[in-house]
């Protein structure tokens, strides 16, 4: 049966109207229920607090909420678009003493609780970095139970250059079982190994105490590390990194140690250890130095040797001398090499519960390029036992936790809660991101996790409560932190505004990657253009990074307080720093590169700033249309 034409027309019109109404209805519903496309304020901030007296520890606080607008007073500006080093983790050392206490002085239920509190990020603080002695340290049970030992001990007067007697059997009793339990709880744990001494027969002293490494033992010592890595790998314990010697500039009395000067360690890495790892397919990182902040010349000696540099991942540091900014000093000289803090013991000398020093260590180390924050003994008893008990062996050290040898009860010290303010919330692979330093005793450091969540750790080192604001793009919140307390803030979302990715507000230098010289304003000559021919940083190599709006920056030369300009009003004119107002040709886009360098793109013409090293002493310009070697720069903070 066929409809007549008028009937069909009316039916089609009705159908069309119905379809249109349905589409409109779904569109209206979608407007109400779809995710907003514009960033809005109101992100929830979770807060955890530890008080200076530990009466409150890692305790959740009332949530905060970001609000539109700028903070006031003491402002901590967090910029997630400026990233620094990736974090490896936080931890301490399961020494012979520590592992023995955990394995032999605790019931299985006590041990399980402690291990989860140490290494589980949900029920505990999620520690994920372990620095393990290779053989005995001063935190080893005393003789005759244990005493000094290596993995290849020989009778006096005998040697073993082929390492036929190498064995980690000592560790099988309790160290390896405890490590396996830790790794089972937290598979992301990274283990590094460090010897306090090679086997005595390798040394001039014939003992694990004192002396130097015999020239004839360099090859055997390199293979000693190879066998150690292989033996632990066979136990399911991969070794992430090693250092050739603990504290090579200190020869202790009464416990294992060895003098290993910088030139000798350099030769050992480049001629023996590096090649031995390469020949055996070992990818374990080699970290140089492993000693105090007061001797930057030691790591510089290693890294300045091109061959040793190629085998060395970076530098390991201790906290017992100098200041933490030594890490930045070496980083600025070798920005493609990484930084680890690997030992900083708590103890009676601190005259505190360990919380203040742990918080200052954590914040200072990370703000100076540290990928790890590591205390010393993970577990000791309340009296700092057991230790070798001889000579200078530490009898006043404090563990991250204390275990009573009589009943297995645990005291969680300030070191534990200090590390936990970061380790519980910052996951491996997180980036340290930019945050302005606080004032009036407020110290802070910020991170961005792989899942995009932000973590800010703030510590009040002052003697009175302090209020501050946290600025994140165009939003902020306010908080008051009691004296001696630390708070961790965690939130999700994406930063809106204020994010060029550049170190805005900082004074920096730029160094051309292809000739390793510094960009200079050369104010010693009138109206001279910028070039990359300076070999040291002085005033005319320093630039203030200014927020130019819309995700762009300007560079203000310290030497004459003028802006760096691309001067696109003239053809092919080089960059100079002679302009006293900020317009289009003084604005640049900061472009971080995958290799850690940065490129600068001129807003005025869309071209890249170039050091143009294909010509001798050629000024910088912004006339290159692609990024290659001479358009890449390393940078550092002055």
Automatic annotation (TrEMBL):
<dbReference type="InterPro" id="IPR033452">
    <property type="entry name" value="GH30_C"/>
</dbReference>
<dbReference type="Pfam" id="PF17189">
    <property type="entry name" value="Glyco_hydro_30C"/>
</dbReference>
<feature type="domain" description="Glycosyl hydrolase family 30 TIM-barrel">
    <location>
        <begin position="88"/>
        <end position="395"/>
    </location>
</feature>
<dbReference type="GO" id="GO:0016020">
    <property type="term" value="C:membrane"/>
</dbReference>
<keyword id="KW-0472">Membrane</keyword>
<keyword id="KW-0326">Glycosidase</keyword>
<dbReference type="InterPro" id="IPR008999">
    <property type="entry name" value="Actin-crosslinking"/>
</dbReference>
<dbReference type="InterPro" id="IPR017853">
    <property type="entry name" value="GH"/>
</dbReference>
<dbReference type="InterPro" id="IPR001139">
    <property type="entry name" value="Glyco_hydro_30"/>
</dbReference>
<dbReference type="GO" id="GO:0006680">
    <property type="term" value="P:glucosylceramide catabolic process"/>
</dbReference>
<feature type="transmembrane region" description="Helical">
    <location>
        <begin position="12"/>
        <end position="33"/>
    </location>
</feature>
<dbReference type="GO" id="GO:0004348">
    <property type="term" value="F:glucosylceramidase activity"/>
</dbReference>
<comment type="similarity">
    <text>Belongs to the glycosyl hydrolase 30 family.</text>
</comment>
<dbReference type="Pfam" id="PF02055">
    <property type="entry name" value="Glyco_hydro_30"/>
</dbReference>
<keyword id="KW-0732">Signal</keyword>
<feature type="domain" description="Glycosyl hydrolase family 30 beta sandwich">
    <location>
        <begin position="429"/>
        <end position="489"/>
    </location>
</feature>
<dbReference type="InterPro" id="IPR033453">
    <property type="entry name" value="Glyco_hydro_30_TIM-barrel"/>
</dbReference>
<keyword id="KW-1133">Transmembrane helix</keyword>
<keyword id="KW-0378">Hydrolase</keyword>
<dbReference type="InterPro" id="IPR013780">
    <property type="entry name" value="Glyco_hydro_b"/>
</dbReference>
<protein>
    <submittedName>
        <fullName>Glucosylceramidase</fullName>
    </submittedName>
</protein>
<keyword id="KW-0812">Transmembrane</keyword>
């Amino acid at each position: 049966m066929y409809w007549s034409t008028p009937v069909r027309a009316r039916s089609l019109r009705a159908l069309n109207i119905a379809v249109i109404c349905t589409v409109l209805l779904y569109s209206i519903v979608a407007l109400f229920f779809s995710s907003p496309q514009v960033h809005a304020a109101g992100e929830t901030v979770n807060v955890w607090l530890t008080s200076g007296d530990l009466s409150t520890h890692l305790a959740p606080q009332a949530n905060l909420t970001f609000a539109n607008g700028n903070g006031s007073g003491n402002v901590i500006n967090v910029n997630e678009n400026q990233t620094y080093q990736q974090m490896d983790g936080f931890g301490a050392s399961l020494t012979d003493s520590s592992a023995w206490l955990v394995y032999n002085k605790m019931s299985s239920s006590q041990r399980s609780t402690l291990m989860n509190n140490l290494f589980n990020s949900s029920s505990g603080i999620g520690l994920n970095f372990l620095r393990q002695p290779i053989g005995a340290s001063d935190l080893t049970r005393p003789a005759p139970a244990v005493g000094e030992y290596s993995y290849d001990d020989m009778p006096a007067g005998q040697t073993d250059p082929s390492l036929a007697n190498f064995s980690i059997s000592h560790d099988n009793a309790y160290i390896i079982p405890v490590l396996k339990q830790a790794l089972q709880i937290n598979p992301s744990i990274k283990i590094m190994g460090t010897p306090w001494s090679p086997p005595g027969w390798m040394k001039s002293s014939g003992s694990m105490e004192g002396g130097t490494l015999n020239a004839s033992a360099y090859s055997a010592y390199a293979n000693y590390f190879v066998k150690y890595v292989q033996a632990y790998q066979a136990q399911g314990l991969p070794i992430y990194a090693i250092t050739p010697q603990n504290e090579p500039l200190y020869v202790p009395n009464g416990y294992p140690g060895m003098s290993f000067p910088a030139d000798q360690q350099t030769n050992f890495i480049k001629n023996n250890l590096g090649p031995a790892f390469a020949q055996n397919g070992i990818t374990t990182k080699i970290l140089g130095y492993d000693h105090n902040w007061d001797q930057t010349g030691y790591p510089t000696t290693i890294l300045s040797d091109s061959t040793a540099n190629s085998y060395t991942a970076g530098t390991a540091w201790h906290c017992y001398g100098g200041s933490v900014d030594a890490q930045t000093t070496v980083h600025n000289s070798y920005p493609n090499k990484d930084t680890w803090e690997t030992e900083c013991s708590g103890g009676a000398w601190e005259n505190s519960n360990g919380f203040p020093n742990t918080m200052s260590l954590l914040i200072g180390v990370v703000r100076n390029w540290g990928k790890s924050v590591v205390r010393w003994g993970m577990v000791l008893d309340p009296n700092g036992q057991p230790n070798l008990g001889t000579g200078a062996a530490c009898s006043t050290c404090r563990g991250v936790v204390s275990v009573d040898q009589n009943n297995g009860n645990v005291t969680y010290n300030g070191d534990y809660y200090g590390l936990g303010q970061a380790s519980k919330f910052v996951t491996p692979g997180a980036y340290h991101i930019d945050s302005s330093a606080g004032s009036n005793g407020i110290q802070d450091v910020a991170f961005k996790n792989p899942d995009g969540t932000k973590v800010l750790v703030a510590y009040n080192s002052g003697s009175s409560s302090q209020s501050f604001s946290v600025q994140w793009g165009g939003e902020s919140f306010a908080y008051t932190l009691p004296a001696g307390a630390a708070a961790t803030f965690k939130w999700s979302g994406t930063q809106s505004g204020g994010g060029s990715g550049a170190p805005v507000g900082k004074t920096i230098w730029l160094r051309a990657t292809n000739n390793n010289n510094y960009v200079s304003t050369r104010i010693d000559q009138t109206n001279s253009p910028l070039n990359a021919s300076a070999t040291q940083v002085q005033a005319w190599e320093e630039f203030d990074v200014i927020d130019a709006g819309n995700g762009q920056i300007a560079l203000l030369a310290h030497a004459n307080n003028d802006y760096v300009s691309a001067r696109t009003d003239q053809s092919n004119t080089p960059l100079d720093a002679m302009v006293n107002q900020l317009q289009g040709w003084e604005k640049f886009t900061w472009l971080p590169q995958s290799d850690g360098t940065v490129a600068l793109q001129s807003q005025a013409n869309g071209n890249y700033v170039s050091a143009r090293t294909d010509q001798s002493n050629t000024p910088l310009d912004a006339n290159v249309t692609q990024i290659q070697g001479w358009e890449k720069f390393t940078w550092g903070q002055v």
